[in-house]
Amino acid sequence: MTETFSWGVATSAYQIEGARYEGGKGESIWDRFSDEGRMKVKGDVACDHYHHLESDLDLLADLGVDAYRFSVAWTRIMPSGEGPVSSDGLDFYSRLIEGLVERDIEPWLTLYHWDLPQALQDRGGWASRNTASAFARYAGVVADAFGDRVHHWITQNEPWVATYLGHLYGDFAPGITDWPTALDVGHNLLLSHGRAVEAIRENAPGSSVGIALDCRPARPKSDSAEDREAARHFDGFRNRWFFDPVFGKGYPEDMLRAFFVEDRTDDLEPAFIRSGDMDQIATPIDFLGLNYYTTLPVGAGAEERDDPESPPGPNQPDGFTEMGWAIDPDGLRDYLGEIHRRYRPKSIVVTENGASFSDAPDSGDVIADRARIDYLRRHIDAVRLAAEAGVPVDGYFVWSLMDNLEWTQGFDQRFGLVLVDQNTQQRIPKESFAWYRDLVASESEESVALEAARSVVARDVGIRLVVDSGGPEMSEHLERWMDGYVLAWSTGRADQIAALFSPDAIYDPQTADGELHGLDEIVTWWQGTGDDPDGWDFAWLPVVDTDEVAVVSATTKYSDPPVSYRNLFIIKWGDDQRCIDFTEWYIEEDA
Q1: Which range, of 214-218, 263-267, 386-390, 553-557, averages the lowest pLDDT?
Q2: 231: burial class by Cβ within 10 Å (0-12, 13-18, 19+)?
Q3: Helices H, strands E: what count in the chain?
Q4: pTM metric for this prediction
Q5: Among residues 59, 173, 96, which one has the least CA distance to residue 403?
Q6: Which one, of 137, 121, 125, lies nearest residue 200 by Cα?
Q7: What is the mean pLDDT of residues 421-438?
Q8: In this structure, what DSSP letter does residue 336 have?
Q9: 433 class by beta-carbon count within 10 Å (0-12 exposed, 13-18 middle, 19+ buried)
């Protein structure tokens, strides 16, 4: 990972804060939902984070993360959703943010994690466009209050969940079950995102702003035409309906047709889309937050169901978390690559990833949650592989810091690195806490080594990266490759950083054939690209030639006026002196 990579943990307000009746907090749709008996446990107390703020901040400092993602309760800032702003609410979050900054932890603030003020729900909720306008005003208030200390903002968290679980299936607050309402809600959530991006940038200039979208990568249950079509439809319903508009593609045409045919919309161009809406939804963002937990096989008849493969609960079969979700780290690696190819976001941050396992403490209060550690290790490795393949992934947040109120599941599902005793509110770090702390520390050390290696290479080799070679996107891709290999040859840890790629897979390692390739094959391949093979001069660059890693440079003059470039081939040698890894980047020779 690069030295700017963010390592963090995440929580949300309703799931941990408690203090429902303190600080002038207003009623949210989840308060009403729980009062109606729709939840196993109310969120009135949750993890009582409101009263354990300082000790929870100390936990974060002990964990050693450099970023903390949290959400602000709209009802704690503006109790009725509009109108007066609560000074008590601003003070609470100001203390949280100050505490993070004092501990050298970067605040990542999420504006909405599903807890809409009930007062706004009474006036139509997210089915009303007025709520999108109210959200933009709320975003402006929060950005104005905290923009001097908060530099990373997330507008909406998982609008698919709020849309369909809250307004189609009725499983989540506010418990509505109606297709047209759900589609109105989804559109207004996206519209509110676009408006909030503008409000944040106006009130907190220079901020990095994004949205956190959850995903459920799908694969056909079989190779039948029916199952393949079902998986395509599911992808449109579960993923593309939200990803496409955010990145300026509009709503997927196949889904617009499907919803019209099923009488869920009144036209192929639904009435809820007004002039200018899609442009506002596609307001450019600085990063995409991706929440990933699992993948799903989809068959005919289940095109619009996101049910877990296994019933949630303990005693799951191997390969599943207690949410009943299949453990599939390859799915994360593949989907990061797919998002990169399909939408070309500037940056991707894994804003949620984690696993529910209900490990209990032993007699010595040791919680040996080995399954969680294995889950996290494998998914972090998947992120690393995606980054090494050129995907612009710049952060990873574990869900969650602590066991919290898992919505309608209560405390039956436990995702935390820290166990919370609901009777005493005692916090007990699990073994995964120590494991993640050690990983973050080692990554920090690696970043320091990388910066030192860059300096050595720049001094001894006398080269520098061309910042505009092939345009900004290509330059960013190549720089990510360079970081890994600079560190590899400077520390002798190439085998830990390099992955198996073949020469024909420079930009898409998923097509790698896994075969071994010698230097002669590489040269032949390069000449076969048609880039004036007679004009290339292959030579060794001895300063970085070791038993483990070697570098080949090819020099030519191209462009007008001519500029001399070196194209470096990074070679990872196997025991038989055959190339087992290969990549390249462009650098411009110093004058």
Answers
A1: 553-557
A2: buried
A3: 20, 17
A4: 0.80
A5: 59
A6: 137
A7: 96
A8: H
A9: buried
CA dist 401 to 11, 214, 297, 349, Å? Answer: 6, 19, 30, 17
Count the alpha carbons within 13 Å of 225 in the hemisphere toward its beta carbon.
Answer: 0
| CA–CA–CA angle 97, 100, 102 (5° rounding) | 110
Rounded (5°) CA angle 31-33-36: 110
> H/E/C letters for each residue in 354-403?
CCCCCCCCCCCCCCCCHHHHHHHHHHHHHHHHHHHCCCCEEEEEEECCEC
Beta bridge partners of 218: 296
Q: 532 in the Ramachandran plot: left (φ > 0), alpha (ψ -120 to 50) or beta? A: left
Between strands 537-540 and 549-558, the pairing is antiparallel
Region class of 242: left (phi > 0), else alpha (psi between -120 and 50), else beta: alpha
Beta partners for 420? 427
352, 406, 443, 446: the catalytic one is: 352
Given CA atoms 538, 539, 543, 544 in this order, what sign does their dihedral have?
positive
Report which residue type is found at 120. Answer: L
Q: Which of 422-426, 493-497, 551-555 has the lowest mean pLDDT?
A: 493-497
What CATH number labels 6-445? 3.20.20.80
Contact by Cβ (8 Å): 175, 166 = yes
Amino acid 114 reads: W
CA distances from 558 to 176, 336, 462, 533 (A): 63, 34, 20, 13
Cis status, amide bond into 174, omega within 30 of 0: yes
Instruction: List the domain boundaries for the chain.
Output: 6-445, 462-589
Classified by CATH at the fold level, domain 462-589 comes out as: Nuclear Transport Factor 2; Chain: A, (3.10.450)
292: which residues sit within 8 A by CB, 6+ positions away? 214, 215, 331, 332, 335, 350, 352, 353, 379
Cα maximum dimension of the chain: 77
Sheet holding 537-540, edge to edge: 463-465, 579-589, 563-573, 549-558, 537-540
Parallel, antiparallel or unpaired: strands 296-298 and 418-420? unpaired
Can you tell me the distance from the alpha carbon of 419 to that of 372, in angstroms, rounded to the nearest whole number?
A: 13
pLDDT tens by residue, 322-333: 999 999 999 999
Catalytic residue at 451?
Answer: no
Comparing C-alpha atoms, which of 189, 198, 191, 139 is closest to residue 161? 189
Known catalytic membership, residue 304: no
**Which run of H or E residues covers position 211?**
strand 208-214
Alpha carbons 352 and 60: distance in angstroms, whole number: 17
pLDDT digits (tens, 9 = 90+) for 238-286: 999 999 999 999 999 999 999 999 999 999 999 999 999 999 999 999 9
Q: How far apart are the first and last CA of the chain?
A: 30
Ramachandran assignment for 374, one of left (phi > 0), alpha (psi -120 to 50 degrees), beta (any other)? alpha
Q: Please pick, among 27, 106, 158, 443, the residue that the annotation labels catalytic.
A: 158
Q: Identify the H or E element spanning 195.
A: helix 179-203
Structure tokens, 81 = 């959703």
Quote the tokens at residue 472.
């900004």
Contact between 553 and 523 under an 8 Å Cβ cutoff? The reply is: no
